[in-house]
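Troubleshooting: if your tokenizer reports a length mismatch, compare your output against this known-good record of 249 residues.
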Amino acid sequence: MFQALLAVVWLACETGPSYDSAQEADTIEAYEAFLVADPTSMFKDQATRRLEELYFEKGLALGTVEAWDAYHQRFPEGGRKGEDAARKRTQAHYDAAMAKGDLASLEGFAKAFPKAGWLTSRAAGRAAVLAYGKLSFAETRVEGINLAEDPKGEKNGWGVFVDVTNGGDATFEFLSMTIELLGPDGVVLETRDYPLVSPTWDLPAEPIQMAPMKPGEMRTWEWSVGYEYAPKGFDGRVRVTPTGLRALP
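Known-good structure output:
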């Protein structure tokens, strides 16, 4: 009898943490320990599903590159939340690269995430601006305007203006800016892209907007939005960043 009791105690110690104890703790560490101790458990699928949820929740809570990379490393093939996690991981890496703002970080993002659409284009464009190094940007001006450009009309929209000077010897057929509309707490409410110069436009454009920007030239980038079309909470705070650049051969 005593020997049988010892065997039960020994077995309990050798089997490691139970699924019940992992559920009670409900942490990444607890579920990982359980799966390591009993990789063929009948509760393996349930533990793995909850583990993925915890990694995802941690990514949402922290929003950092490290947190989303941890999810990706643990579930490289993607789990039930794989697509959403992949998008958030890409965004976290983009935000980190833009925050650092150096050429290596921006080029590194564009190389690591070549199929991230606008994020890849913006990072590569920002890197091109830094590599050229001869564009200067005056302080951003934001003011209430009349969208019909009627000097006597009431102000019904926001106008954003940035003077851009080409101080180098290259001629550019494309130069675009990314504008982030910010809330009072600095959170990005909406992000849009709009060119200073481009050979093609989705909307009617003035000839100067399609003409290449020559060395020594200064132009004013302008963007506007009606008050009723601005995102809720927007009060005129913006962040404007040059994120597109293409020179003529």
